[in-house]
Automatic annotation (TrEMBL):
PROSITE patterns: ABC_TRANSPORTER_1, ABC_TRANSPORTER_2. Residues 3-248 form the ABC transporter domain. This is ABC transporter ATP-binding protein. It comes from Schaalia naturae. It is a peripheral membrane protein. The lineage of its organism: Bacteria, Bacillati, Actinomycetota, Actinomycetes, Actinomycetales. Pfam families: ABC_tran. GO terms for molecular function: ATP binding.
Length: 264
């Protein structure tokens, strides 16, 4: 499995918001993308699965297992999303349909990509709900998004993204809206899912300590460009670029990021 992005550019309203980004994700790799708000990290990820805002102009190459995705018809991209590449969004409340049960929504990928019958879909949905540690899944799957807590909605979104067993999972700021305790549980869940399934992970955040916890390799973005890249432990202990240095200082100020002597 390989996602190869080369010289990616994204323009919105004629303004370049992603400019010349290169990245590669291989088998069972954990890649982190870090940057402040507006750095282009989310748009880079969304470009890879064809989910950019209407009117966005994309240049460069996005290849999935050698197949060019840039310029591909949305119908063809829809066959890849969910089946090959799963996406977990920052705020699941905006990604989930408020008038359908969460169980029905978790099963969408199975019906779309594999045409499974009702009984088999229900069996797999229940297994996915158990896998992401939803409490009392038989009851919870019959509920609607507004009836769940923020942490439960995020777990539903994760189940929805991984139920078709994609080779790559993109998690875009998946813990931003959660309190610290729930956040830790969701991060542990990502760890277990990646370890159990062997899928690759692209973890996006503005918090370098979270990215360093979840990823071995990190890209730092600013103003649409990659300004620094390297192993997570090196970026924590010896950041080169002023943007990375600022992110490390901010994380250390909250106590979430180890100091240089602790990393060494």
């Amino acid at each position: 499995m390989t996602l190869q992005i080369t010289d990616l550019t994204v323009r919105i309203g004629g303004v370049p918001v992603v400019d010349g980004v290169d990245l590669r994700v291989g088998d069972a790799q954990r890649l982190g993308i870090i940057g402040e708000s507006g750095s282009g990290k989310t748009l880079t990820a969304l470009a890879s699965v064809g989910l950019l805002p209407l009117g966005a102009q994309v240049g460069g190459s996005i290849r999935w297992n050698g197949r060019e995705l840039a310029g591909l018809h949305d119908r063809d991209l829809a066959r890849i999303r969910g089946r090959d590449i799963g996406v977990v969004f920052q705020e699941p409340a905006t990604a989930l349909d408020p008038i359908r049960t969460v169980g029905a929504q978790i099963g969408d990928s199975l019906r779309l990509h594999y045409g499974l019958g009702r009984r088999e879909v229900r069996r797999r949905v229940l297994r996915a709900a158990e896998q992401v540690r939803l409490p009392d899944p038989e009851r919870l799957l019959r509920r609607y998004p507004h009836e769940l807590s923020g942490g439960q909605r995020q777990r539903v979104a994760i189940a929805q993204a991984v139920i078709a067993r994609p080779a790559l999972l993109i998690a875009d700021e998946p813990t931003t809206a959660l309190d610290v305790t729930v956040q830790a549980g969701v991060l542990d869940l990502f760890d277990d899912l990646v370890a159990d399934t062997g899928m690759s992970l692209v973890f996006i955040s503005h918090d370098i300590s979270l990215v360093a916890r979840m990823a071995r390799d990190v890209l730092v973005m600013s103003h649409g460009r990659v300004v620094e890249a390297g192993p997570a432990d090196r970026l924590l202990s010896a950041p080169d670029h002023p943007v990375t240095q600022g992110l490390v200082r901010a994380a250390r100020a909250t106590g979430w990021c180890p100091r240089e002597e602790e990393v060494a």
